[in-house]
């Protein structure tokens, strides 16, 4: 959007925007104009001598020689007035000024200057691609590709929910390629698509529709980066279904917390936990009877090789922990990193699955038998 301020506009004498009078009202102040999403919005302030006058809005295409009245504004709020002109064409420039109209005499006084607005070509950013929905517990996590950023005037994304009847609802907006929807109910399927917006308010078509069905499980846990949201960056393997494993990153009871720096993402153990020094590339946390022949998991914790140092987070990998449990004894557990990303606030987030052996000292990595929530 390009804005130019032009020279003085002559005082006009047009009653009700088109007849002559003698009393001249106070002029408007600070006339401004901007274009967004197919419309030009004008705003101005009341003059110090304003006495209930209405306003005439004048407009013309920049290539024309004469102005025409396009609206009369009769009410303002707290000293500010505005008008939105939707009758504009892309690729054209428009000039505007506003005149105060005396209610008794009909005389007008124009704003000190006119403003010019260029209506940009409504070419939206590319349609976002690669939308993925990860079903969690009472939550769906959405992530997608960043191809829309190829547009030089890219601004942000909109996340939409489509109902089974076909109605569409705006869930929210974000400048990150990720969104955490924490409103769903477990067992219900939700359908999503994403659009991209440019700085001029032009919206792309919707991405491919993707679906997610949240469910209670020990899969799909999520943890925040300590430097973004410390209160939800710590994790403790739990033996009780009623205890939330997500704790503060500063909680002494945590087994580890998530941190990021310029070189990567890190699992940082507490004093009561050690990591096996090697991780394993896996396809799932636990393979079952109906699993794919290529299914790869870790079923038994190694008896040695544990270290007390930060480990780099690698998606699609399983890490084994040796921890001191709630009973004060040694237990083994495993976490598998599903993905790394950001939420709608651009806070770093790690989604992972986990398992915990309730029997002290046992190396069998047996998940909890019942859901926590």
How is this structure best described in words?
- By secondary structure, the protein is mostly beta strands.
- The protein folds into 3 domains: 3-118, Immunoglobulins (Immunoglobulin-like, Sandwich); 132-212, Immunoglobulin-like (Sandwich); 221-356, no CATH class.
- It is 0% helix and 41% strand.
- It has strands spanning 3-5, 29-36, 39-45, 54-61, 68-73, 80-85, 93-101, 108-110, 115-118, 132-135, 140-143, 154-162, 168-174, 178-181, 190-198, 210-212, 221-224, 234-235, 246-247, 256-261, 264-269, 273-276, 280-281, 306-307, 311-312, 317-324, 330-342, 348-356.
- The strands form 6 sheets. Strands 17, 22, 23, 24, 26, 27 and 28 form a 7-stranded antiparallel β-sheet that branches.
- It is elongated, with a radius of gyration of 31 Å.
- It starts with a strand and ends in a 17-residue tail after the last strand.
């Amino acid at each position: 959007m390009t804005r130019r301020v032009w020279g003085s506009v002559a005082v006009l004498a047009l009653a009700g925007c088109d007849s002559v009078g003698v009393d001249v009202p106070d002029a408007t102040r600070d006339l401004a104009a901007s274009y967004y999403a197919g419309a030009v919005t004008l705003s101005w302030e009341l003059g110090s001598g304003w006495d209930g006058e209405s306003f005439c809005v004048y407009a013309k295409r920049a290539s024309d020689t004469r102005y025409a009245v396009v609206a009369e504004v009769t009410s303002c709020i707290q000293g500010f007035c505005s008008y939105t002109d939707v009758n504009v064409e892309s690729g054209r420039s428009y000039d505007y000024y506003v005149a105060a109209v005396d209610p008794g005499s009909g005389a007008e006084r124009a704003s000190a200057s006119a403003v010019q607005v260029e209506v940009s070509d409504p070419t939206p950013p590319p349609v976002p691609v690669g939308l993925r929905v990860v079903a969690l517990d009472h939550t769906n996590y959405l992530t997608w590709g960043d191809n829309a950023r190829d547009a030089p005037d890219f601004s942000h994304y909109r996340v939409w929910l489509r109902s089974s009847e076909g109605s569409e609802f705006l869930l929210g907006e974000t400048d990150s390629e990720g969104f955490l929807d924490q409103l769903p109910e477990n067992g219900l399927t939700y359908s999503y698509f994403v659009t991209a917006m440019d700085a001029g308010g032009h919206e792309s078509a919707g991405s491919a529709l993707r679906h997610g069905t949240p469910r209670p499980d020990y899969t799909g846990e999520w943890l925040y980066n300590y430097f973004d949201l410390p209160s939800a960056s710590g994790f403790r393997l739990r033996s009780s279904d009623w205890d939330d494993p997500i704790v503060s990153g500063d909680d002494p009871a945590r087994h580890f917390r998530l941190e990021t720096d310029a070189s990567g993402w890190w699992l940082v153990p507490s004093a009561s936990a050690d990591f096996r020094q090697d991780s394993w590339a896996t396809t799932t946390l636990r393979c079952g009877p109906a699993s794919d022949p290529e299914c790869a998991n870790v079923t038994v914790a190694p008896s040695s090789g544990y270290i007390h140092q930060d480990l780099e987070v690698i998606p699609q990998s399983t890490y084994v922990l040796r921890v001191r449990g709630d009973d004060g004894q040694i237990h083994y557990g495993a976490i598998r990193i599903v993905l790394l990303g950001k939420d709608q606030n651009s806070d770093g987030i790690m989604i992972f699955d986990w398992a915990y052996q309730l029997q002290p000292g046992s190396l069998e990595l047996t998940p909890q038998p019942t859901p926590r929530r």
